[in-house]
Amino acid sequence: MGVRKNARDLTSTEKAAFVAAVKRLKAQTTGRNYDWFVTTHMTYFATVSGVRYAHQSPSFLPWHRQYLIEFERALQVYDPAVSIPYWDWTVDRTTSGAPFTADFMGGNGSGGNGPVATGPFAGATNWRINVSPSSSTSLRRAMGSSSLPTAAQVDSVLGISTYDAAPWNSSSTSGMRNRMEGWQTPNLHNRAHVWVGGHMGQQDSPNDPVFWLHHCNIDRLWSLWQTRWGFDTGRYLPAAGTSGVVDLNDAMQPWSDVTPAAVLDHRAGYTYA
Amino acid sequence: MSHLSRRDALRYGAAAAAVATGVAGARALSISGSSGQALAAPAGNRDPRDFELQYHGKRIRGVHGGTVAGPAGVASRQRRKPHEVFIDGRKLAVMEIELPAAGGGLTIGYISAINHYEPVLIDAERNKGGLLKLAKRAVDVLGDTELTAVAGEHHDHGR
User: Fold this and answer.
1) CA A142 from centre of chain
2) Which of B23, B118, B155 has its CB closest to that of A201?
3) Phi, psi of A184 (to 5 degrees)
4) For residues A119 and A104, is the Cβ–Cβ distance under 8 A?
5) pLDDT for the residue numbered A265
6) DSSP H helical segments within chain A, as ranges?
7) Measuring CA to CA, which of A8, A55, A234, B94 is 20 to 30 A from A46?
8) Locate the Tyrosinase copper-binding domain: which residues (chain A) (predicted)?
């Protein structure tokens, strides 16, 4: 069982191991390599066969949970000791502190809106962008021109006991999910994407490796919500018979056999430190 | 879940193919595919909010989609032609999503491949310049880079 740690607590060795595994997955030329994950995220930002699987829908949280599990397994092929760390942006809120240090994710884009200039993902030679709606082959960031969610805002979202509500999309107002995803205030997930900017604000956001740290934190917050309100299947909504979204026992594309019910209780597979 | 329509099945097929080809295929960073997609509104039929101007070294053009007659029973919001943005002649697909309105009820926000997590409001009374704002924001994000063909692909965010 893996333990997902706060990125600020990783040792130098752990940071180097994570970066090395990510780069080996990037260099992989067949199968579900790094760019497969980028392309999959781009495809599933929209509806696929009339169903919203990954965004603007109740399955935003379980879909990304499975997506992270698969990414983590792909890294563990290269290094079984690696787990995805999380970026707690309620604590680490600067463009040069953890995790944006030169020994890990690297820093801001040059000029505040250009190619990342420091760290292991700086420049197209170290980290080449292959699949994107913009033509830059170097990773770009434009950090810090907006605000990150606060701890008080996280607490307010985790205090909402209802998982999600009709119409099960970006306009839902009475559940936790849309506040967590961020189409409704206080907007946790979307805001951190926008705060990092560059590729993280785009459809191809997994091109920035900090994507995984951000989504690991979102998954951790969902896990904290589950710890408070329950890991049981009765806590996920909708239960059945809902058009256009993933019910509790529907498969989440692109996985043919993974349902929200199957990923609700993650504690046998990984935990958070 | 809903049943697959033929159109949905075709769309899913295309999406699956794109996933399968991955880096090697359809989504490589070619900027040639979407250039020159000129779309001139018929003379006399222009929306007064449409624009074409130079902004930070790039030519930006916006065409507001008017409402068109839709099939009976389809909600009015589904009868609007999509708004269109072009940056240096390359298309940036603009997509509608429903959002909670500030005072209750619904409003329509617009996202694109470039501002995927930060919708802008376009049509509401105080947001008549929304499409121009979206285009300028995209230019600010792009900096000295350009859109690729991927940015022009329309995709449906459902409702």
Assistant:
1) 18
2) B118
3) -125, 145
4) yes
5) 98
6) 12-27, 34-43, 60-78, 151-158, 177-181, 189-196, 210-229, 260-263
7) A234
8) 55-72, 208-219
B-proximal residues of A, 56-85, CB under 8 Å: 56-57
ipTM: 0.94
**Neighbouring residues of B81: CB distance < 8 A, sequence distance ≥ 6:** B65, B66, B67, B68
- C-alpha to C-alpha distance for A109 and A107, rounded to whole angstroms: 7
Pairing outcome for strands A2-4 and A270-272? parallel
- Report the gap between the CA of A242 and the closest CA in chain B (Å): 6
Q: Which amino acid is at B26?
A: A
Mutating which of B23, B27, B117 best tests the A interface, going by the most A Cβ atoms within 10 A? B117
Q: What is the model's pTM?
A: 0.89
Amino acid identity of residue A59, one-letter, is: S
Minimal C-alpha gap between B110 and chain A (Å):
12
Per the CB < 8 Å rule, is B5 touching A50?
yes
What contacts B40, CB < 8 A, 6 or more positions away?
A: none
Whether residue A85 has a cis bond before it, omega within 30° of 0: no
Which residue in B has a C-alpha nearest to residue A184's C-alpha?
A: B100
Report whether A76 contacts A23 (CB < 8 A).
Answer: no
Question: Cis bond leading into B42, ω under 30°?
Answer: no
Supply the mean pLDDT for chain A. Answer: 97
Q: What CA dihedral angle connects A90, A95, A99 and A102, to 10 degrees?
A: -170
Dihedral sign from CA coordinates of A234, A235, A238, A244: negative
Looking at residue B79, its pLDDT comes to 54
Q: How many alpha carbons fall within 13 Å on the CB side of residue B138? A: 38
* Domain range list for chain A: 2-101+148-272
Secondary structure of chain A: what % helix, strand, coil (to 5)? Answer: 40, 5, 55
Pick the CATH number of A2-101+148-272 from 3.40.50.12710, 1.10.1280.10, 1.10.260.40, 1.20.58.1120: 1.10.1280.10
